[in-house]
Amino acid sequence: MGAKDFFPAYSPPFSRWLVLLSVLFYVQGSCAVVIGHDSLLRRNSTLLTTQEYRDRRADLIAEERALRFDTQRIRNATAKELRAVEIVDELRKREQASVWYADPNKEPGMPYLWAKDTIAQTDLFKLIKKMPKGGLLHAHLEAICDASYLLKLALDYPTIHVRTASSLNSSAPFPTPIFLPLSQAQANQYTNNSLPTSPEYQPNSWAAINRVRDGFPSELGGPLGFDKWIINSLTISAEDTYTQYNTTAKIWAKFTNTFIAAFGLVRYEPILQRYIDQLLVSQIEDGISYVEIRLGFSSTRGVISADGTRNLTNSQVMDLTQNVISGVRARLKEEGREDDFVGARVIYSATRSISYDEMVKQLNDCLALKEEFPELLAVGFDMAGQEEPGHPLIFFAEALLNFRAEAERRGLDIPFMFHAGETLDDGGEVDSNLYDAFLLGAQRVGHGFSLAKHPLLMQKYRENGIAVEVCPISNELLRLTRSANTHTLPILLNNGVPVALSSDDPAVFQNPGLSFDFYQVWFIPIEFLLQEKTYILAPTKAIVASDITNILSLGQLARQSLEHSSLNLTAKASALRLWEKRWDEFIDYIVASG
Amino acid sequence: MGAKDFFPAYSPPFSRWLVLLSVLFYVQGSCAVVIGHDSLLRRNSTLLTTQEYRDRRADLIAEERALRFDTQRIRNATAKELRAVEIVDELRKREQASVWYADPNKEPGMPYLWAKDTIAQTDLFKLIKKMPKGGLLHAHLEAICDASYLLKLALDYPTIHVRTASSLNSSAPFPTPIFLPLSQAQANQYTNNSLPTSPEYQPNSWAAINRVRDGFPSELGGPLGFDKWIINSLTISAEDTYTQYNTTAKIWAKFTNTFIAAFGLVRYEPILQRYIDQLLVSQIEDGISYVEIRLGFSSTRGVISADGTRNLTNSQVMDLTQNVISGVRARLKEEGREDDFVGARVIYSATRSISYDEMVKQLNDCLALKEEFPELLAVGFDMAGQEEPGHPLIFFAEALLNFRAEAERRGLDIPFMFHAGETLDDGGEVDSNLYDAFLLGAQRVGHGFSLAKHPLLMQKYRENGIAVEVCPISNELLRLTRSANTHTLPILLNNGVPVALSSDDPAVFQNPGLSFDFYQVWFIPIEFLLQEKTYILAPTKAIVASDITNILSLGQLARQSLEHSSLNLTAKASALRLWEKRWDEFIDYIVASG
């Protein structure tokens, strides 16, 4: 029997079968759709000419791109901006060939920690460094300043003590160091303790940081070995994220340990002062003019006073922060650089793993602090921490609704800025935080990595102007995506969801400022170097360039970070004016160099 | 100066500022949206109660899920099916805990080649093996049968010769083996040639396969070392994809070499006969009842006759294929299993790297062959090969429009089934193949990995019933995604784009049948095991289960593969009836085992 015996004779043109089709296959509620759409290829009854086809294609592409976040910015581009686009695209293409495709082990958007040194040497990166980046809207206090800087600060204070859960030796991975500033009275008890590097070390007993460093044995590298241990404890390395901790659970365990290590250092009054100062200065050096810092206020997260004898009150912590911000502003003004910095504010950040009752307590704390520091503090309320094991928002729904009502009664404006969608989940309890963030009226959402899976929610976020604080390098290092070129960001951008690029935990991810994030996301769209091809993408409509994201797109992302900041109207207008001024200078710089 | 000096006094409620807002920030065409959407939290002027909030939440989730591909199937589920869902969800949760989260090095949806052995031992996988899977719509001839099976076939034919570009030794990676069946006259010239494993080997000179195997030196593992070399040449290993060839360019080079190695073996008349037979039998064993094979017909892709003296004509290749299909059907009938197999057909597959003129020639060949084999052959036309370096569809637009017109003139129905969107590109020339596939009236699209980035196109694909042949394991091993849990498939499913799961190149990816694909995609949605939590997802509306994808979803995916096959109406109706019958038996089996 041949195939012809099995398959009925060739069937007549499809149209005749259409009625039969809908009868035959309407089984179980799903209808087989096989009618094709040849009508697309027709003008009346005639097939399209190639030119008509190209026109139709250009229209379709333009229709889809109209959804994008940068459409208007590109449409309204000045002649000078268009020239800058050309120059930068040319540079980008050149370095794609000379840097990324010249080495078979490299490609655009490749894993960040393998790419970082190469990126830093490109002219494109040096250009992005100069770009005014607007606001940093998502970053956690303890993980912003460079790890080596934090270590340097720590070594200035002999009151800092360290302990470990086991002794250090070369035959096992080093334990996480726990730091704590002790009062003189406390410190006196530990002056003769065995060091963590000694076989006699009593687990979890304190030793002064300088004693431990000076006594670090030479077989473990001596004092420099100590520094390496601390810095490794404060950061995630390529080996950590790409090899050793390659599941979500494992990398979050490592990540949590970096916070445990940083915590006892950052939350010490004299260090905190210098740390916040450096935090602001380092962002400003990267072209960031405004920062919203996520800060935790739970009772176990106190800041210890200079003499090590007590916890600062939350009000004292806020006063300290405010004074540092004012100090940085004053210094910049003296240098004639006051336009480089429009301010910094604090988002009240709880953790999502706490109990319902504890959350109610923190929500009340937040209201009280907001009344005391109406402009600096609690410009938003958030819950941080890994979403999977933590409670979803719906768990706290009643408390959050009550908070909203109470804030309204007191006339306090504390928008929600929830972590949501920092997960690979699809439609489960974790991913569903994105529904609650929306329904609870969040003004922004942290991460929103899984928002790309939600067609209706993306539309709602767009229509309601809910910005997503996307943290590409953070998401990569915490194993949500292999690298920048497989991140979901382009989906959000193509759907017109407002996005503010953020660094999340720059210290942990070895990712100072926002320049690396801007560089990496730019390479998410891969453009292969096609040779000797004469067609172009959308011949009748292409305005600027054949690729979808250009330097104006990056500018629009930067601008959006200010638009979606919590600055009040006057301050925001001023910040945007300053940003536009710096942007113009940046464009001038590009055109002059081209 | 304190922060209060810088920040203006606390601003009045937002509504008053709304007019001012739109004036202030309408700069450069983009408007700062910071109005929030507190109205969501209100019923008239009162804030929602928790219950009202939960109802609104359930409505929102239901509204979004209505877009999904499986909504109707789940809504119309029988009581028996709902019971099966419960049983399978219970099994899935149990094995998530006992298999995937019990070992810190494992997680659901983890890299396939690291997960494969573990998957194969689960009860859930054994269940999926039994599931009727409908059609396999995307698989390339040379890469379907297991590599060790192909090697076994090759060793049966002493006429097969092998050559390499350099000699083999333990100090360098082994070169790719090139195979060719030689005629007796040709073979006679090479009987005394040095072997590729000899230092005297003359690069690219032929040696009989059995001589090379028998003479494989013991330091390279002897004959078993030969087998290992050939199988490694025909497959991509975990080491290859996750470590050694970790860029798109490198992994495609390796991938292309597997085809080069397979080519000379598969395209030999007596092997091809047995190979196609095994291809069908192995799919049938995995519950696949219908296959559409992509087959290349270019002049350089001939099939060599049994005596090694000539190329078969394309008609002869088709006759051979038809006879094998008929033979398998006859055997199954004898065994009383004729319902397990509804047929196989061939998609004409060109490669996209050829010249415009060569493409015109192949399009004409395709029309001619279709006239000769109207039901078996050319049930679709495609262009295979890596999209990045190959030509985009727009390059061939004129030829494709002419082909469409000519097919219509001759009354031939040859739908386009283009590879498109098998890329990480975003809006560039490569990714734009998705626009052209749509505008050229494609009935299906191969891969569509980047379709997730196209909100408008996803809607068009859905409305026009254009199915995407998604190949999750292929995409992972070719470095479009780290692993199943970061694949874009959930985005297509949540947008209601029709999807048919496919294996692409099961031999290369060590992925027989479709069971592993079904298993892995099922774990794309991660469900963490949340303990002691009392909330549920959508309390007032949840029908079946709290997670978004269940066994009925998998069934719907299987069913869709038949709905979107190229079977004509009568054959399709029959195939769907048979599938529903097997599905019912499958559900019965689950319920009986529960």
Identify the CATH class of the largest domain in chain A. Alpha Beta
Contiguous uncertain segments of 5+ residues of chain A: 1-36, 525-546
Largest sheet of chain A: 4 strands, parallel
Query: Radius of gyration of chain A over alpha carbons?
Result: 28 Å
- Helix segment count of chain A? 24
Most residues in contact, chain pair and counts: A-B, 149 and 150 residues
Mean pLDDT of chain A: 87
Q: How are the strands ordered across the major sheet of chain A? A: 3-7-8-9
Sheet/helix structural class of chain A: alpha/beta
Concise structural overview:
Chains A, B: Residues 1-32 form the signal peptide. Chain A has 594 residues and is an alpha/beta fold.
Tell me what you see in this structure.
The structure is a homodimer of 594-residue chains. With 594 residues, chain A is α/β, with parallel strands linked by helices. Chain A has two domains: 112-146 and 261-593, TIM Barrel (Alpha-Beta Barrel); 158-234, no CATH class. Chain A contains 24 helices and 13 strands. Chain A has a four-stranded parallel β-sheet with strand order 3-7-8-9. In chain A, strands 10-11-12-13 form a four-stranded parallel β-sheet. A three-stranded antiparallel β-sheet of chain A has the order 5-4-6. In chain A, a hairpin with a 2-residue loop joins strand 1 (42-43) and strand 2 (46-47). The longest helix of chain A is centred in the last third of the chain and has 25 residues, at 569-593. Chain A is globular. Chain A starts with a helix and ends with a helix. Residues 1-36 and 525-546 of chain A have low confidence and may be disordered.
